[in-house]
Fold this protein.
Amino acid sequence: MIVEAGQLALTFAFALSLLLSTVPLYGSFTANQRLLLLAKPLAFGLFIFSAVAMAALIYAFCTSDFTVINVAQNSSSTLPWYYQITASFGSHEGSMLLWVLMLCGWTALVAQFSKALPLLLQGRILGILGLISAGFIAFSLFMSNPFARSLPFYPVEGRDLNPLLQDFGMIMHPPTLYMGYVGFAVAFAFAIAALMGGRFDSVWARWVRPWALAAWLFLTLGIMLGSWWAYNELGWGGWWFWDPVENASFMPWLAGTALIHSLAVTEKRGTFKSWTVLLALSAFALSLVGAFLVRSGVLVSVHSFATDPGRGLYLLAFLLVVIGGSLLLYGSRMNSVRSQARYQLFSREMLLWGNNIFLLTACLIVFLGTLFPLFHKELGLGSISIGEPFFNQMFYYLTIPFALLLGLGPWVRWKQQQVMPLIRPLAMVAVAALIVSLGVLASMQSVQANLALLGMLLGAWVGISALAEVMLRLRQFGSISKGITKLNASHYGMTLAHIGFAVLVIGVAMTKTYTTERDVRMQQGDVATVAGYEFTLTEVYELNGPNYGGQAAELDVRKDGQFVTHLHAEKRFYRIQRTIMTESAVHARLSRDLYVSLGEELPGDAWALRIHVKSFVRWIWLGGVLMALGALLALCDKRYRRKQTQREPGAEHA
Amino acid sequence: MRKVLYYLPLFAFLALALFLLSGLFSDPRERDSASLNKALPEFALADVMQPDKIWTPSELKGETYLLNVWGTWCPTCNAELGYLTELRQQGVKIVGLYYELPRDPAFDAPFNLAELQKDVQQKLQQQGDPYQFNMLDIDRSLSLDLGVSGAPETFIVDADGIIRAHHIGDINPLVWRSKLAPIYQEWRKP
């Protein structure tokens, strides 16, 4: 019953999305205010029905209703209840429904917080979002229905959730990531609506900024959670693999990062218009292309979903309509838009332009690296593969100029900046960065490797420069204590995000340089020494979990005779799926992680263990968190809200 | 001119869509090596155990052999060592191309040969030693030229130094019998 109710709710949602994608848009071209006013209630209704559909699916999972194919294939009655909930979006069908729910959620949010927008624009934006929703709901309903039943023959037990997905990180990762992906639909809809109306000014940019920031915030968190999950769950101790699916999330992130910077220029200076619009279109276009790559089976990846050419064709047709249509509109409308503002060679505009160039080059590299094997093969040149070394090398070369510019950027004024006044403070920042870097490296056990030094230098340069710049701005208000409350939240947000980037760069460089790893054979009581830490294997015993068995190892870690910690690593065997999973033991500190994963049993009562001492690996995720926090701070900026509260009374009159 | 410029994103996207469309109808898992039926690229690599000894393609000519890319860090490679050793006992010549993962050539990280030799020796004693000898691809130059995407990968090289097969993944009895053995037999000089 409940499942049918879910199906019905999804059907209603489809009908509402069709109405939303036609009625307000028609109203906007015929200047029919009543039709335009329908957009908001339609958007709320769409969200409510898609939420009901998702709730029904979760209900089916929690009650282990194995007559539903999706439940039978991705859950089991022995699965703990919280994983039964997450299993509802662990499959292609379920995750598509989650995607739809998120999209409708953003649409409802836009409807709620768009009081300040002119009715015409509001109707168009919601109409575009409705159109995108309609496409995805139709895909969910007709091509990959999550509620499909297998009656009259159904299994008594489900096939269980893929053990890789049975992890806390997996509870958080997909919803956060999808919020980010889909969030760029809002900026996309704003761009299309503006293209229809031909209005691009700083007011438009101010409207888009918080939405782009919010989407970027979620995408940043989602990618970071994914990396953290891979580190804990895959047992290799790696945190980024340049897998096509990871790249699919990284490309919109790079375009989105370029977008939030380009929007700043459009808002403050009224220029870069065509560029900003193109970025707003491409951030979402790249999300869509990513979804296509993951779900169509065009590329091989560790986490692509089961494939079916029919689905791929549908998605491709959808891409053609949405992306092709928007780019066609862009081509035909953008000719008439001109930017008037003038600026000098050394100005913040130019530096942000540089930022955009580097980010888009990075995006292009990821894009080509991901798709080149496909191009190569389809051109009949045979199959090739592009791996980690290519990406690592490219990003190594890109990061250096990018970080140098980033340290400089916030100091430089709009329009024109004299070089002389900047020389003294920046020279001081550079000297400070040098001292800090050398100090940190000297404190490490071995001073080596230009990579660590380079990473530290770049990180310290960006971080110290960001801090010093904020101090300077605060002092301009008279005194620091006075300035602290006066400076915009978005300025703090920018500083925090830039420091986050610095932390990330340091983390990557230090982890790459100083990580020590060893594969060892150990019996109970054996001691292995890695990077000064003594790992003693105290016990290995049998495990008995709800839906898995396996072995667990207990280790004591000492350093210089002092007890450091106790580690518990597991090797699980999931009975229904018949797969082996490593649950690595991690002891985390800011300066290093102790990471142990239990390998296979060796002859003679011994075990293979992989022991890593990973220096500064936490900094990588800490950097991501700081960037996301920066975006959150920027979102809190009064500018975005003041505008709305001021206009609220006026909007209610209308 | 300026007009056309704004349509560029559209054209780029349409070209991409064309590729995606054709990609939909081909299996991404099915792949053939770009280096197939070509001569082994030039190289001069040191022996893992005796770094003074440098191997070049010409020295390897004269007999069909398997070139196996592996590393002690790679669990799948370790798993196939046993079966490869059986093949060696059946008279198949196997040459190892050692791929050192922890050391990334782009970053000039330090590298300890003695430790690596110890690792390799220990692993081969444990799991079986299928190799005539191992070449150390320290800069990954040969691996790159061959189009190696990871380990393990195995090439069949004939007596004239021409690559006749490229297999990605481990070699087990099934793979050997159904895929590699026929090619090996075909190119093996009587």
In short: The first strand of chain B starts at residue 45 and ends at 47. Chain B has a mean pLDDT of 81. The radius of gyration of chain B is 20 Å. Strands of chain B lie at 45-47, 54-55, 65-70, 93-98, 134-136, 153-157, 163-168.
